[in-house]
Known about the structure:
Helix content is 41%, strand content 18%. By secondary structure, it is an alpha/beta fold.
Amino acid sequence: MPLIDPKETIAVLKKYDFVFSKHYGQNFLIDDHVLQKILKAAELTKDDTVLEIGPGIGTMTQALSEAAGEVFAVEIDEKLIPILQDTLSGCDNVTVIHQDVLKLDIAALAEKACPGKKLKVVANLPYYVTTPIIMRLLEEHLPVESITVMVQKEVAYRMQAGPGTKDYGALSLAVQYYAEPYLAANVPMNCFMPRPNVDSAVIRLKVRPEPAVRVRDPELLFKLIRAGFSQRRKTLANGLRNSSELDFTKEEIESALQRCGFPAAVRGEALTLQQFAALSDALGREREEA
């Protein structure tokens, strides 16, 4: 019987006397309808190599094994390793790796497992470490084709939000710079064991072959974005002046805003990624011409 069946999940937990860890934010999926939505969003074939992050007791891993050519399941909790060795004993194309994915050499893994090709990441991510994991996968230009993950609903909404909405922020722009987000499903809290305190969502990030915008200095771009959302109620100009990461003068900021055709009182939440990129380039020119 598949582990997605709640009775089977309970049986495995009892067999190993497993206690859920708050430290690792463990919530195991027990809804097959949601599992099928994840698999559909991931668009897996037998030609794909999957990196699963946080397999838990192997519930989604079993399904990934059937859908993909090879699966590498990375689990940080040593108490789950013997359970995975048991529940995945019949899955010959699954390799369990006991490691922190934030420290794993993913590039080397991909080169060995599927040289010349890219991984597809599929995961039910712990809420506390969602953003660091996703941003590592994106920022380090790893050989990853897509990232299909279960995350806290509010985080998923922020990743795909646009200008002028309450969910729009620095995370929206960071994710959209590197990937195309697609919200695949909303997932209520009763689909997990134990039940979390918040609802979740499945989001698919299709990694772009090139960033969404061309900019002279990407590091400056993200400093501007962080500054622009650090004090949402203030104008963008004030946010830039108050940022500890930036040292532009009031005059340089005002001149750059004018170059871009932005009102002096514009707020960061009103700007698109392309407009932030234009402002970044304009500030760079201001500094060069000073």
